Amino acid sequence: MFKEYQHLRIPGPTPVSPEVQRAMDRTILGHRSGAFSEIFAQTCEKAKYVFQTKEDVFILASTGTGALEAAVANVVEPNDKVLVLVTGVFGERFVKIAKAYGANVMTLKFDLGTTAKPETVKEVLQQNPDIKAVFLTHCETSTAVVNPVEKIGNIVKDTDALLIVDSVSALVGMDLKMDDWDVDIAVTASHKAIGLPPGLALVCVSQKAWKVIEKHKGPKFYFDLLAYRKKIKDRTTPYTGPVSLVYGLSKSLDLIKEEGLENGFKRHQLIRDMVRAAVKALNLELFVQEEEAASCTVTAIKGNNQLDVEQLRKILREDYKVEVAGGQQDLKGKIFRIGHLGYIHPLDILTTISALEMALKQIGYPISLGAGIKAAEEVWCNDKNIG
Ligand SMILES: *Cc1c(COP(=O)(O)O)cnc(C)c1O
């Protein structure tokens, strides 16, 4: 009976709403047809709202990593000096891609579970005026921190360097003001807070970045953004667009607009606060201590000698149909992560917390049933002003 039943609580892919699911059901149109062009052009236009930008937003048929590669491939030439701010696995991914394109990579590493420090970035940029680009992960999904994009944007804007931001697991769940915060390239992907299946990525480029891209001579082909810019004028993509995902994106952007970006951010924040309150009430330890550094889209929770996180994940999956994420690389076996981004209602997280309590009880972890639920409900009631 419940073969397909599940609660997908990983930081992407995320659940798809029935509205978006239905929108994607539409007959496949030819990717060069007038009818599809119309939908495509409207969708690109609507996407500006989520980046809070006046610039064009480009649709790529790829996952998030393809968009990260696009950002590198269009800016970095062999031996260019770039600075990567590393707060976890996704910062490391920028390092790997930049190296693959021959960059001379400087890294600034910050302790796992903490954010990039703007003062340090400022010093390094002053000492290295030849840095061509600074790469930053908005929400570092592997540790569940949110980096201070605005503050770093404020520093990078006064230099010749570009600020390139991986907002894959943040955009739509947390504020990103492309134009006001002086972000030069921002990227996101469909299967995170936008709430579509995997396979589509979005890239937004500032005027400062275009000047660099127009002069760029390094090797690139599929991700050559100048080709996308040329084709967007004709209301199309250089290669076959991900037609069904564009239908879905169009609907998803309507739903996001209808809720209002700000209200969406508040919803994500409320859910984060509910999770954090529950975790504390269950005597579990949050991986990100500092409230301000805690992402609104994913929460990481530490294991300990009474709590084997992999055993917990297995019970959650098999007995309760709740899928949560484990730790990646150095954090494997040390933390588990609850994804709470996109099409998620506060009530959904109460279900997750309930399953978590029962699974903890099952492995003999000392908790009292209902403690986490109570703490989370109080946060929600308080938010609704129910005294
Ligand atoms: C999910 C994610 C990506 C993209 O990963 P793909 O598997 O290529 O979609 C990139 N950066 C961050 C921060 C992510 O959370």
* E-strand count: 14
The residue ranges in which pLDDT falls below 50 over 5 or more consecutive positions are none
Largest sheet: 7 strands, mixed
> What overall form do the CA principal axes indicate?
globular
- What's the pLDDT, averaged over the residues? 98
> From the helix content, strand content and strand pairing, which structural class follows?
alpha/beta
Count of DSSP-assigned helices: 13
In N-to-C order, the SSE pattern is EHHEHEHEHEEEHEEEHHHHEEHEEHH
Into how many domains do the coordinates divide?
2
CATH superfamily of the largest domain: Type I PLP-dependent aspartate aminotransferase-like (Major domain)
State the strand order across the main sheet. Answer: 2-10-9-8-5-3-4
> Might you state the CATH topology name of the largest domain?
Aspartate Aminotransferase, domain 2
The proportion of strand residues reads 15-25%
**Termini Cα gap:** 40 Å
Q: Percentage of helical residues?
A: 40-55%
CATH architecture of the largest domain: 3-Layer(aba) Sandwich
Question: How many whole angstroms does the radius of gyration measure?
Answer: 21 Å
Q: Give the CATH class of the largest domain.
A: Alpha Beta
- Ligands, ions, cofactors: pyridoxal-5'-phosphate
GO biological process, one term: glycine biosynthetic process, by transamination of glyoxylate
Keywords: Aminotransferase, Pyridoxal phosphate, Transferase
Protein name: Aspartate aminotransferase
GO molecular function: alanine-glyoxylate transaminase activity; L-serine-pyruvate transaminase activity
